[in-house]
Each structure stands twice: as C-alpha cells, then as structure tokens.
Amino acid sequence: MGKSHEKLLNNLEGLRKGAGLTQQELSESAEVSRKSINAIENGVYVPSTVLALKIARTLNCSVEGLFRLP
Amino acid sequence: MTFFKRFLVLFISGAVQVFFATYLLLELLGLSLGWHLAYHNIMFVPGILIFLGSGYLTVSYYFFSDEKANNSLYDEFTAVRYYKLGAAGYAINGIGIFILYSIQDWSNWNFELANNMIYQIAAFAWLVFGVLMVWFSMGDYKESKSG
Predict the structure, then answer these.
(1) Does the global pTM surpass 0.80?
(2) Which of A32, A38, A48 sits opposite B72 (nearest CB)?
C-alpha cells in the first residue's frame, strides 16, 4: 500500500507502475487531470465511484484491488 | 484552454478585484489612505474583467477545447477545490458581516449609515471572493505543474 488517505488505503502507484503507465497516461485513460491521479496516489483525495471504476478499468483490476478500508 | 491560461484569467480578475475592493472597503470604513481614484468609472474594470473572463472560459469549454483538455481542466478534484474555497468564502463572509454589524453606530442610526453599511458588506464580500479567486488560481496552477 502507498501513501494513503485516513479513510482509504490505496495501492494505485504500485499497480500503475506495474502496468507501465505514467500518471499522465493513466489520467488520460481515466479522463481526469494528472494532478487528480497524483492526489489519489498520495492519499490527498478520495475519488468518486465513477473515477475509481475508470481507473480500475484502465489498470485491468478490480476497485477492491486498488482501494481498501483501513 | 490550458492550466496556465486559466491561471492568468482567474489571477488577473481576482487581483484587480482585490485591489478595488480593498480600496472601497478602506474608504467606507473611514480608513482612507489619503489617496483617491480620480476617475470613478474605473470601478467598472473588475466587473468587466469578470464578465469577459467567465465568458472566455465558457466559450473555450464549449467551442475551442477538445474533450481531453476539458477532462483534465474540469475534473472532480478541481471541483472539490472549488467547493472548499467557496464554502470558506461563505463562512468568512458570515463572520465579516457579523463584525460589520457589530461596529455600526446604532445609537445614531439613519438612512445614510444604513446605505454605508450595505456598501461595506458588498465591498467585504467582493474582497473575500477576490482573494479566494487569487488563491484558487495559484493553487490550481501550482498543482498542475508539480502535484
């Protein structure tokens, strides 16, 4: 697990790097800004359900694989 | 539209608004700096900038920007930043209006003082949202570059 929000642990950075994507590439696939991806990875921001699903689809994993409750 | 262009539009509009609102509020509170605007029609400038700036942002969103750029510029993280600053603005305005009410001379209340208080409230709200616009523009651009 990477740096996480107090209410949501995330593994986004590891999965993104594992998929060989930059923040910019992931943000374009998920239709958000790069800073949103950065904010999620650093535990600054908890994404909406739609954004979480888009990220999961891009990384070909489940939302539960990306995020979990502390 | 890019993050830098949006920064420029919002920062310039906000900074001009802060300048005029501060000037007006100081005048209304009797804290004049001993310097006065010679040409008062210039007070329309911040309003015109807001009108043109918001028009430019709207037109660029619908007509001069592709979907990829719009997805990046107007995503949910930006919306959250906007909502948070808007909420802070309303809270600060509430406190400010309370203070402005508190400092009025109610023992000699008349229409002139009432009119002056309304202007004070308007100038204060104008100042608060100008500061927040500058704040938003700087944070938004900084994040687009580094985080």
Answers:
(1) yes
(2) A32
